[in-house]
Design brief:
CATH topology: Gyrase A, domain 2
Number of domains: 1
Strand order of the largest sheet: 1-2-4-3
Number of strands: 4
Strand content: 15-25%
Largest sheet: 4 strands, antiparallel
Distance between the termini: 29 Å
Radius of gyration: 13 Å
Oligomer: single chain
CATH class: Alpha Beta
């Protein structure tokens, strides 16, 4: 885990949410639903995000049904939303724009 990874304070989380379109805090986790034009696009999104998640060693809880991907992010190790959650959420938004 990177040395600068930490559970975000409420102020940090509120600030970061302003830059993460579509994300919200639900039960202490970052949550977002993505809808794509097809099953193939949803799978492409998940495959591309998987590469980044592996690089960060920070993995989403997610599920897929046809063209929808439901995502929750939090650090199991730290017990809350962390800096890596924000980084992965931002990358997911970027990748979603390509799919």
């Amino acid at each position: 885990m990177p040395a600068d990874n930490h559970v975000l304070s409420s102020a940090e989380l509120d600030r970061d949410l302003l830059t993460l379109g579509g994300w919200q805090v639900v039960n202490g986790h970052l949550a977002r639903s993505y809808c794509f034009s097809s099953f193939e696009s949803a799978m492409r999104f998940m495959q591309l995000v998987a590469v980044e998640a592996r690089r960060l060693d920070h993995h989403p809880n997610w599920s897929n049904v046809y063209n929808r991907v439901e995502v929750e992010l939090w650090s199991h190790e730290l017990g809350g939303v962390s800096r890596l959650c924000i980084e992965l959420a931002a990358e997911m938004n970027r990748v979603a724009g390509e799919c």
